[in-house]
Design goal:
single chain; mainly alpha; 0% strand; 5 helices; 64% helix
Length: 127
């Protein structure tokens, strides 16, 4: 169950980032160090994409709080957030038309190997 929750958390993080990217792409607003805290950014907060991104981030954080409240090693579950790197590479190529290069695919393979090594032989609590 924890691995499934970590996948859902990763999906929430990824969709939150994708919707945030859509919000910036939709607006003419471009952040820079001088305008980061100006009132020019306020209309962005009312974008449907920005609101969707906040929703996904809140759900992801809520689930994360649940996961770390369980009897499980934080040093084990925290690296599982790397599922989000894998999911992001795939979904960004689909939704944002980003290239899924050999270098990215190689990185995904290495991340998958790392997750496999990390989980090898570990008995997850069934709660």
């Amino acid at each position: 169950m924890i691995i499934a929750l970590m996948l859902i958390i990763s999906l929430c993080l990824v969709f939150g980032q994708i919707f945030l990217k859509f919000a910036f792409n939709e607006s003419a607003y471009k952040l820079n160090i001088n305008t980061l805290f100006s009132l020019e950014i306020v209309p962005l907060f009312f974008s449907k994409f920005f609101i969707a991104s906040i929703f996904f981030f809140i759900v992801g954080v809520g689930l994360w709080v649940y996961v770390i409240s369980q009897d499980i090693e934080l040093s084990l579950v925290y690296p599982l957030i790397s599922f989000s790197y894998i999911i992001m590479a795939v979904l960004a190529s689909f939704f944002l038309k980003e290239d899924l290069t050999l270098q990215k695919i190689s990185g995904i393979v290495l991340i998958c190997m790392g997750i496999t090594i990390l989980m090898w032989g570990y008995k997850m609590p069934l709660r």
